[in-house]
Write a structure and sequence with these properties.
Elements lengths: L1 H5 L34 E5 L4 H13 L6 E4 L31 H8 L11 E4 L4 E4 L5 H7 L18 H16 L1 H6 L4 H21 L13 H20 L11 H11 L2 H4 L4 H12 L29
Parallel strand pairs: 1-2
Antiparallel strand pairs: 1-3, 3-4
Helix pairs in contact: 2-4, 2-8, 5-7, 5-8, 8-9, 8-11
Length: about 325
């Protein structure tokens, strides 16, 4: 399954290069744009997937959970299909109850019968047509924060403040390329040099953020921002999947005092904790994404450690 996952996404040097998303229709009121409309869309996710997980965190923080419906794919990929897919086997009768699809590929191919890429989550589907309208895993988080602002609940946090957007965007590029995608570059490398390159960059960036978080509670002072969501989803999967399964084994998350306390600080917020499903994460990575011929599921790490006290809120930073 891991070999199938990276098929067509490895360059001549053995470097993993993630496919580009293809459904990028913007939201707005102009011709050709998507209307921001309550109950119009269904977001297909997997709790295992970091790109989908960050959407779920943002929806909960912003109070957008009631503005659209959410469909959840099984964390263990279906086998014997001849393709890498997601299945709705968690639902009664093995079909999404709103869209009637058994597999995510059914929705993609309904949208474009000639679609050739991987079938990815998150996928935002127009319920009226049953077609994917946006699967921009990188920018969808920003779309909730800006284009959907009129549907935010009263008192929702500003995750993308105008005064620091340029700084957030710059940090997000680093987090994406070297950390979010960096663990995949290490895990799916097809040469020693490509693996070591990704490994070294990943831990250089984690060391930098360990230092940064010694000076502030969150990445940008005392408020949760878009960047914190992006970093958190990788940290939440680090010890359970990336450390061992993707050979990112210089340090565990728990070996970084500031990063580990910071991750726990975020986890102890309801929007982060309630959307972090460690059982889905472990099942997906160890039974689908990692070569594991005997399908043995690791018992650890101990999830209770995520509830251990930390002093990020009361600490004095310099």
């Amino acid at each position: 399954m891991a070999t199938d996952f990276v098929k067509g996404e490895v360059d001549a040097f053995g470097r993993f290069q993630r496919q580009k998303t293809q459904f990028l229709t913007p939201f707005g009121s102009e011709q050709g744009q998507l209307p921001v409309e309550k109950d119009r869309y269904r977001l297909i996710v997997s709790y295992a997937c970091p790109w989908a997980h960050r959407q779920l965190i943002a929806l909960k923080l912003l109070g957008l959970e009631n503005a659209l419906t959410i469909g959840v794919a099984d964390p263990v990929r279906p086998t014997g299909l001849g393709r890498t897919d997601w299945a709705f086997s968690l639902d009664p009768d093995g079909k999404d109850p709103v869209l009637g699809a058994a597999y995510l590929s059914d929705i993609y191919l309904k949208t474009d019968p000639d679609y050739q890429g991987r079938y990815t989550v998150p996928a935002l589907v127009d319920v009226e047509t049953g077609q994917v309208v946006n699967n921009d895993f990188y920018n969808l988080l920003k779309i909730w924060e800006t284009d959907w602002k009129d549907l935010h609940e009263d008192g929702a946090p500003d995750l993308y403040p105008e005064s620091i957007r340029q700084d957030i965007d710059a940090l997000n590029e680093i987090i994406f390329n070297d950390i979010n995608n960096g663990v995949y570059k290490a895990g799916f490398a097809r040469s020693q040099d490509a693996y070591e390159e990704a490994y070294d960059i990943l831990f250089t960036r984690l060391d930098e953020l360990e230092e940064r978080l010694s000076h502030s509670r969150y990445l940008f002072g005392n408020q949760v921002t878009d960047s914190d969501i992006r970093l958190y989803v990788t940290l939440a999967r680090f010890d359970a999947a990336y450390y061992n399964g993707f050979r990112c084994n210089r340090n565990r998350l728990v070996d970084f005092p500031n990063l580990w306390a910071y991750a726990r600080d975020l986890y102890q917020l309801p929007a982060f904790r309630e959307t972090t499903k460690f059982d889905h994460i472990k099942k997906h990575y160890h039974l689908s994404a990692i070569d594991n011929p005997h399908q043995i599921l690791p018992k650890g790490p101990d999830e209770k450690e995520w509830l251990a006290p930390q002093d990020r809120a009361s600490r004095q930073y310099q």
